[in-house]
Design a protein that fits this description.
By secondary structure, the protein is α+β, with helices and mostly antiparallel strands. The chain contains nine helices and 13 strands. The strands form four sheets. It has a five-stranded antiparallel sheet with strand order 5-4-7-2-9, with no helix packed on it. Helix 5 packs across helix 7.
Amino acid sequence: MAEGEFWISYSDFVKTFTHLEVVHLDAETSRDEPSLHSKHTWQMKLYQGSWRRGVTAGGCRNNQETFHINPQLHLILSEMEEIVVSLNQHSIMEPKVIGFTAYTLPKNSTESINKQFFKKNKSLVNSQYTNSRQVSHRCLLEQGGYLLIPTTFEPGQETNFTLRVYSSKPLKLKLLDTPPTLIKSAIVKAPALEGKGFSQYEAVFLQLADEHKTVNAFELQELLEACLPNDYIKSCASMEVCRQVVLTMDSTGSGRLEFNDFKDLMCSLKYWQAAFKNHTKERTGILKAERLRDALLEIGELIQKHEEFPSNSY
């Protein structure tokens, strides 16, 4: 028997110890220990990310309205395998309560999953939630794709984290996100029978328009100054905004807008305002950051949640 080695029966072991911690060494670490060179090494993939308030800090699955904004990681297993998932937070002085959840991912999923999925589907794996530096969980999974979601317990808590997945067989891990996409035009066409509703604007428009009954960006700013309802909204119609509006809505390339274009703009502003109000029901006039993506989606803009990307895997 080697020095320092001892044997103990299982019954005595259970009576003597309350916890058993196992250290899983990745290939980089075990390379420094000669006695491990002949051993089978773990395959390991990692993702380094962060939880940011209103963007990627949705809290645990108890928070149904924000859980989906957490980082969503796509894990792919080529065959049935027992894996170890380890979530490490970078906060030392004020550690957060952290953990992770896994779901079976629908086939052919390449973009982030919306909140309706989590309301309808049960989780497959749930780790412990604790304020320790690291949370680990070992589980046996079938071949296929899985959705891993690392979270803080409470929404809105910020810190950086690293998530590692260990396996004895090859695996893949990547971030699920949606590329910026224009689903539909954000410009709403004015109804053909809406003439009376725009008569109040037409007189002002014609006063500022040229002989061809068109306005440029400077004249558009004056027009909005006269037509918008309050000083705060008027202040948003800066010269740069007006230039961008003309650039977007000018279909002739003349750098000018006709009255029909202006009617479409006013209809669009009303539609955007209604979408804004629809997502600010609890606190009128204040749109929470975590709802911005849903509000933009309603008017046709699909944006990314994440700026960070998976680091190199080993």
